[in-house]
Specification:
Blueprint lengths: L1 H7 L2 H15 L3 H11 L6 H9 L1 H15 L10 H18 L6 H15 L11
Helix pairs in contact: 2-3, 2-6, 3-4, 4-5, 5-6
Length: about 130
């Protein structure tokens, strides 16, 4: 638990806020990051955001992480409450996958289900939600 709090705290909310601005305002990642940085709502990640705004390499690294976290969210979707909740959940799951740590049993099963879909044992569009 402490591991998760140290490495993941605020990342999901940060990338969600950036996603919301990119989607609603149709602005670039860099512009959205600058807006979120000015809000000063994520003190644990503030220095990293400022560093990204000053250094192209850090900006590229954060944008790559952002793209990884938001790749499963349908592009061009309207930002209604239901879609925002699903987006928040997908971003939170993706953030947890960014850090190399021991995998849980749930992650192991999800990987096996993904493989089963790829080789055709399960239909590709079947959702895991119950």
């Amino acid at each position: 638990m402490a591991y998760d709090a140290t490495w993941f705290k605020e990342y999901d909310d940060l990338y969600f806020e950036i996603w919301r601005r990119v989607t609603q305002k149709s602005i670039s990642f860099e512009d959205a990051l600058e807006e979120v940085c000015k809000l000063n709502r994520f003190p644990l990640r503030q220095r990293r955001m400022e560093g990204a705004l000053e250094c192209d390499y850090t900006m590229m690294w954060m944008e790559t992480e952002y793209q990884t976290c938001t790749k499963d969210i349908a592009s061009g979707v309207s930002t209604c409450l239901l879609i925002e909740e699903k987006a928040r959940k997908l971003i939170a799951e993706a953030v947890q996958m960014l850090v190399d740590k021991p995998k849980s049993y749930e992650q192991y099963i999800r990987k096996k289900i993904e493989i089963a879909r790829i080789i055709g044992i399960l239909p590709p569009d079947e959702d895991l939600e119950e």
